[in-house]
Amino acid sequence: MTPDRLVDRIAGRLRGAQMAGFLTFRFPRKPIRRIFFSSLFAAVMANQASAGIIVFEAAGATVASITPTRDAFRTAVGGGTVAGANGDFGGLRREINWDGVPDASADPNLLPSNFFHINSPRGVVFSTPGTGFLVSANAGGSTPILFGFPNDLQTFSPQRLFTALNSNIIDVNFFLPGTSTAATTSAFGLIFVDVEVANSTRLDFFDANNSLLFTRFALVAGNQGLSFLGGVTNAGEQISRVRITSGINTLVSNGVLGNPNDDFVVMDDFLYATPTVGSVPEPRSWTLFGFGIVALSLARYGT
Questions:
Q1: Model pTM?
Q2: Distance of alpha carbon 215 from alpha carbon 132, whole angstroms
């Protein structure tokens, strides 16, 4: 149904409701009627669309090139710069830099998907269509650092990185730290490494109903470059799940890619608002007004 036909239909229902005594305001005639309802429809839709995400993004060849944006994201979320236990910043923000992961859970060994929920409680659990998760090895051991690709990767915070195995998809689900209670967050950001192809690496935010709240591609940083991408909700939205798409290629094992041609992207630091369990935001007044009138008229006179 076109917008014009929808406006005519709503107008007809409301005129009928007025004649039956359900509505007492004087109903405008054409062409004023069309302007009135088009404006009402636009106001309702604009109010719905006004809910959004504040985006923080930067890319460059060096740590210094993205640090100001990372710091701005930190400030927006809150919690200061001094970390407590389990990556806790003032009870407001959590961070994961991978560098405290023990060798037993780093390359060539898999990182448990719930490591940052059980071993170091930070309120996140990972999942992937692939075969697991890998944190890169530290220098001085028998396993090559940087997943075996020192000419393609660098770290933002030395010296470990993170990726999925045999997939470029990672889902992040949130819990109250140290509990089994599902939770949500109001902000999430991370650092991608080696984004060389535009529109190949992105973040998607979903709410508790699995509805998409936000999607954004990371900026291209070039070979060995660093890209920061994050979002902070600004209208009460709550993020239940984050999907990370990292490039096109996949890591099979240290030094081995899924194919030799496509862009291979991994991750460094994760930053997010401390997961909480909060109330569902109330519907906005224009939304209630517009859809309430429509629902009343359609319910009274059928569809």
A1: 0.78
A2: 24
